[in-house]
Amino acid sequence: RIKNFSTSHDPQLVSMYYQFGRYLLISSSQPGGQPANLQGIWNESTNPAWDSKYTININTEMNYWPAEKCNLTELHEPLIQMVKELSETGTQTAREMHGAKGWVTHHNTDIWRISGVVDGAFWGMWPMGGAWLSQHLWEKYLYSGDLNYLESVYPVLKS
Q1: Could you tell me the pTM of the whole model?
Q2: Are 140 and 80 in contact (CB under 8 A)?
Q3: Number of domains present in the structure of the chain
Q4: Which of 87, 123, 125, 139 has the most CB atoms around its CB within 10 Å?
């Protein structure tokens, strides 16, 4: 089916992929848990690819693109919580590494919410993780219109 998709009309395949995307987020992100990452909770390796970290230069964000759009807003909570926690560790990183106010996080983080430069210098010195992740805080507000929620995340967005 996939091979023939470009030359055929197959809306059921599109629907199946949409539902599969929902399934992936449902199965990997639940309120009160950790956010979805590239390796997932089923990784059997003691030395997984990318150390099973959260790669926040696009991969983690992509996992959550469907959250609001697919009416899975409660599944956004683990990522929103991680961003709040990163804003705390990232405040120290911004001050110590960059002599800056606000907060920063780089290419990767993990369950301890590291926010400094990690791994190779070519990609590890990428300081835009916080800005990219903050888009999810804003998008959640745009979908909900919840002013109490916005008030709770505004300090993170502002800094």
Answers
A1: 0.92
A2: yes
A3: 1
A4: 87
